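hey so u asked for the seq, here:
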Amino acid sequence: MSENSAGSESNAVSESNAGSENKQRRVILTGGNTGIGYFTALELVKQGDHVTLACRNLDKAGAAAEKISRQAPEGTVDTAHLDLSDLGSVRSFAESAPATIDVLINNAGVMMPSKRTETKDGFELQFGTNHLGHFALTGHLLPNLRSAHNATVVTVSSVAHKQGPKLDFDDLQATSGYQPQRMYANSKLANLLFALELQRRLDKAGIPITSNAAHPGISETALYTSPDGLGSSKILSLGASIGLKFISQSAQSGALPTLYALESGEKGSYTGPKSLFESRGAPGPAKVSKTAKDPALAEKLWNASESLTGVVYDFG
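ran it, structure tokens below
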């Protein structure tokens, strides 16, 4: 992990940096080189935290870290390689992570590649990256989180989790009838099911870790132009870019729910923008779909995720 200094005057979502008590928190944030992840990292470094941008592209991560360090000299920021579409990379990252982690933000993702694509381990790209990669990462880092005092995990979901998703456990990888939007919605449903189930299991084990979820509403981010996702179709990417100018909020505003979930969210909470059907605005409690509240479905997904990734959480 390479380090650059960072930070500036605090402009936090909450009035105080909850839980820090003048102690610099160690934060791992996936995909923080652009979009809502970048602005999440910037705000945390302004508060004096140490943030690791865990990204697939180290050149872009390094450029982002340098930019953050210029704007935020009160905290620190470094970078580390992490490819969530490769379970070997996830394991290697976790092995080199600091022994104590105060905050883990599962932020990175890919959205709606026009053609079905697979991760290195043979999973459908969206489900494999957005959910299974973060499931494995959180499981590997659980001992590091337990070493901290009241650590917090925030997993970024989406309003898309409500869009008629169906978790087909006979074909979780969409080997037949691939639909880009449906698989994206399924991966975001999986993110929310995971976050809520993680809190239930932590509570049952008496482990003082908070697991929350958040969504950015409709925010202008690189997800709409990434060649790994919607950007794989020039027509769809152009249409989305034009449409976003009329309906989206900025990526900086899209980061606010993640920050709220971290600093102010109650255990097992879900945060999103409060205006225009949760598409934009100030952050607050968000609506969880009936499907995402289903503990039986969450348990089934958890068991499947352990089987697929080979990562078994140790709550003992």
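The chain has nine helices and nine strands. Strands lie at 2-6, 26-30, 50-55, 75-81, 103-106, 152-156, 210-214, 270-275, 280-285.
lmk if thats what u needed
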